[in-house]
Amino acid sequence: MSFVVSPAEYMLVQYLFGEYQRDRHQRARASGPTFPGSRRDESGPRRESGPRRYEGRVQPPLLASAQDTPVNQLPTTGDTSATADPAPVSTAHPLANYVSLHRLTPPLYAFVTSIFSIFIPNSVQEALTHPGWRAAMEDEMRALWANQTWDLVPLPTGHTSVSCKWIFVVKHAADGIVDRLKARLVARGFTQQHGLDYEETFSLVAKLNTVRVLLSLVVHRHWPLYQLDIKNAFLNGDLQETVYMQQPPGFETTGESLVCHLRKSIYGLKQSPRAWFEKFSKVVCASGFTPSSADFSLFTRHRSTGTVILLVYVDDILITGNDTTGIQQIKEQLNSAFQTKDLGNLRYFLGLEVARRSDGLVLSQRKYCMGLLHDAGYSGCKPAETPMDAITSSRPIVLTLTSCLQIRNIIDAWLGS
């Protein structure tokens, strides 16, 4: 039996279970002896008057009913009281009133309760003790060595080295299942110094208006729309500056103190996006493509057999056109120049969920909106037809540094959507 989990549904499930467990453990640690009539006496019915708040942020809600949380199927970490915990206390406007899990089929229900057995390491030492994450780190190191990313040399006098760290991510397939564990070595670019180890950093990416026009053209011309992913894209860029980086944690060479003299760009460096785009542009232009004067991230090639269009956003590439042979040829050429992964028909790009129908494309930003609510801490708020308060207050609004940054990030996210 097969089933499909959309990225938005998976993110919601992960959020609901994670917040429920976190809140339950916090309440268990904070609980103490209670006395009749005291503020901690919870023998009587309890009802919260509104969304829970912490440091000025509305916290995500608990689930409204026990049937939304398969506690007996959640992985335990030594706390055996999970199955005996009573139904959680709900907020005034729980998210489960609008989106819950009770309509999932039994196979899908079993799937979403098992995905939390994969943990994200908090340190290099913790990752090295796990076979899966250790293999992912070794795969990353093999890719770096095969790409001849650096040479081990003593740090010259008068130079400084950039530090680095490991980033761990669980990659999921389009149907929601775990695809692979990804460990990526990232340089801490904020330790770089302008004029010493980097100069130009600006890199072109696809404009959102260009994406909209391309999608409209695909629908109007009934063209196919494919997506490619460049594996370790930034490792293909050529560095023009002299950059030294500390050795990867957990994979240091014993003996004399050495550093990595970078020959290729690496994730985290300020100039890496620019170096990668320059390398990609050289490859596609050598294949007969021409960048558009309106958007230099859009490349076109016109031949007697038809037209092929490429749109690049960092390491995500969209390919369309009416030249079937030409599309297959450019896929093979890109795979020979870089290590690519053919994702097939476009499904998700820049926060847009794309579904193909016979009469066109269906676009949705459900996952993007849910992620924005979750990051802002407003997934437990009551939905409103308009964001403006019905009754305005004459009291001055005091904005802290945290709230100002949050407001700026929310506005930036909406403008970018």
From TrEMBL:
UniProt cross-references to SUPFAM superfamilies, sorted A to Z: DNA/RNA polymerases
Domain Reverse transcriptase Ty1/copia-type: 147-389
Biased composition, class Basic and acidic residues, residue ranges: 38-56
Disordered: annotated segments: 24-88
Biased composition (Polar residues): 66-83
PANTHER family assigned to the protein according to its UniProt record, in alphabetical order: AMIDOHYDROLASE 2 FAMILY PROTEIN, NODULIN 6
Record protein name field: Reverse transcriptase Ty1/copia-type domain-containing protein
Organism: Platanthera zijinensis
